[in-house]
Structure formats: C-alpha cells, structure tokens
Amino acid sequence: MIGGGCGMFASCLRWRRQRRSVGRSGDQDLAPVLLVSGMGGSILNARSKETGAELRVWVRLLLADLEFRKLWSLFNPETGCTECLDPHIEIVVPDDDYGLYAIDILDPSWFTKLVHLTDVYHFHDMIDMLIGCGYQKGTTLFGFGYDFRQSNRIDKVISALKEKLITAYKASGGKKVEIISHSMGGLLVRCFLSLHKDVFEKYVSKWICIATPFQGAPGYINDCLLTGLQFVDGFESFFFVSRWTMHQLLVECPSIYEMLPNPEFKWKRKPLINVWRKQPDSKDGSVVKLDTYDSTESTTLFEEALRNNEVKYNGKSVPVPFNLSILKWAADTRKTLENASLPENVSFYSIYGTSFDTPFDVSYGSEDSPIGDLSEVCHTTPEYSYVDGDGTVPAESAKADGLPAAARMGVPANHRGLLRDETVFELLKQWLGVDQKNAMALPTSKVADAPPR
C-alpha cells in the first residue's frame, strides 16, 4: 500500500511538472502576463558579500525566527533604502523560472509541498491555472518578486520592474504585457505608472489589481507598527516568525508606512486607534480615560509608544523608535501615488475581497485593565472593530483607486485566498480573453459584487 501510494504521488508530480513546463497548447496568440507580488509575497535570500553563499530567510519553517532576523534593517534617509543591520550580507530575490519561483511557493521545501501548507502557497494555483490556459513560462508568463521591505518608489525596484516588462515584451514577440498585481504590488505598479507613464503606455495593455490597499489598511497597518504581525495562525505559528520579531523589521520598512491610512481620503468614518489609559495622577487606577487618535494624530501615539524600542543584534542594542524620516518619505510616496493617471490605451480592472471581517479601528487596554505608560501598548493584545473586506484590506480602500476602470468586482474571499479563488480565476480568464466558451457569465459593470458561495 505504501509503495503504491508513493508511485501515485510520483506520477502526480510528473504530471504537474509536465503541465507547468509545457502548458495546454502553448498558444502563441496570448499576450504575456506578468504576476507582481505584494507585501511578504516574495522569497528573500540573504547573500554573503564575502562568499556569495545564499540562505533563504523568508519564508522558511525550520529556524524561521532565528534566520528571519537577518532581514532586520535600518532606514537610510539619504538613499531611501532600508539597509541590513548585518553589513556582511545583502538581501536578494531569486529570479529563477523567469521570476515565478520567488512568488510561487514561498517555502519550497519538501515538507511544505508534502503537507501542502496553503499558507505559503502564494501564486502557485494561479500559475497552474494560467499554464492550463496555454501560457508558457518565459514566453507569455513571468513573475516579479522584490525586496518588500523597501519603498514602493525606490529606484532599484522601479528599474527592475521596467526591465521585467521589457523582457516579457520582447520574449512574446513584441506583444504588450498584461499585469496582474496582488496587494501592495498594486501600489508598486501605480508608483511605476506615476513615475514612468511613457514606459507603462509603451509596454502595458492591461492592468488587473487584486486586493490593493489604495487608501491604506488602517487596523492592520496601525497595529503592525505597534505590536507586529502574525503571518500565520494556529499550530503553524509555533514554527514560524514571532509577532515581535516581525515587528522589529516592520518599524523600519518604508513599505509599511506607505500603507498607513490616507488621512486625506474621505472615509465613510475615520479609522481610529483607541487607548484605555490610566491617568498619570491616578495611582490606584481609579481614573481611566479613553484616548482616541485619528490618522492625523496617530504620530503622537507611535512616537511615545515606540520611544524605548530597540533590537539586540550581534550583542549590540540598536534603538528602533518610530521613524519620522520614513513617515516623511511615505508622505512623498502618497503624492506619487495620487499623481498616477492611466493612459487611454491601457485597460484597468480591479478585484477586491468582501464578506470577511477586516480590522479598521484598533484598541489597546480596557476600562477594567487600562494602559499605564504608553510603551505598554507595544506588548498588549489588540482588539479590533471591523468593516467589510478581505480580512486585511477594507473593501472601501481597495475600491478607491480613482482610475477609470473597465470593471471592478467584489469577490467573497480573504486576502491571500483571492489568489486561488475560482471566481477570481474565471474573471481573469474573461478579462485576459482566454477560455471564453467556458468562462462564467459574470457581470462586468464598473462596480459589482460576485454572489456569495
């Protein structure tokens, strides 16, 4: 029985490899598709500057929390780059498999594949779907992963995206590229559009964004800067990067600051940070006040709560307070994003998640258990109020792109689940112009929601 199971498993692997390398028919009429990942959606390797040896530091299960610390960094306001604390390494993104390897299965170890740990299966199912529709790696299918710690408008990343577009354009025989971006990848593409509209117009025909936080992700990002991020939940979290280890990276990431809620956006109601706080003159805690901070006031809280924050790296303590230089950089990025305008010959489509409770306001402490010193906030379990969205990005933010869309569609799926959702796949086939006979009859109005399943 065991031998038979292994034989079946080997046959499945051979079939999958054949399918992924050849595709259904290798349709030469297809325009090239470029998949662009978002925050945390690319494999990152630490490369020794001395030996050139590389070690995967994101994503991994074995020794995850320890090796992840190689990503800890400090922002350089002169260059706009976040630079590793360890001067002997540099962070690189593997470009194997035409850029697809880095955004496919984020931990491509044998164990992850054996148990099919879907938390790290990123663009994997979508890549399979596109290959099944006739797309071919290196001819009509490409991926773009990048160092997601960095700003979405940094020259190095923007230049790399330009080169990838040119590569896809030439490899397909001069066909314009159709971009599919996920999450923060949409902000990166929008920055590129703003900074290089002429290049975008020359090489791009369609842009389909999925779950993009155009106006920020209030509850999620506010809490990232204060308490960190738990990337996976449940039993797997014991083998993964801890929330606080993640926090010490994110507080120096320009990309995180660039996803703070846009204070200029006309939200249906302003996102808030609430802190139940014991008054300084109340020694017995009998006087408790609810302090509320909106997007224009939150800097005061961030500064005070993170004033003593530090990381211990290679035996040294490095101060990592709230970074006002990054905040200023992010404000300029917001201007870049708002200056983007879509060329007339480029079609824009948007998919956003619905039907999931999505953090909006975030609260710390309670009336019965108030916060004393604000630095305690960083080690407090948050409580959220929720709005509709994909569990990470509010639908209100994802819909507010301000661009002339050919179609927008709400799909009941969570943030990462959108990358493997069958309704999303049918929409992509329809908008890319493939498998029209088998495509679902879905509405294509400017704003619509797919029916719940």
UniProtKB/TrEMBL annotation:
GO molecular function, one term: O-acyltransferase activity
One biological process term in Gene Ontology: lipid metabolic process
Signal sequence coordinates: none
Origin superkingdom: Eukaryota
Name of the molecule in the record: Uncharacterized protein
Protein's organism: Spirodela intermedia
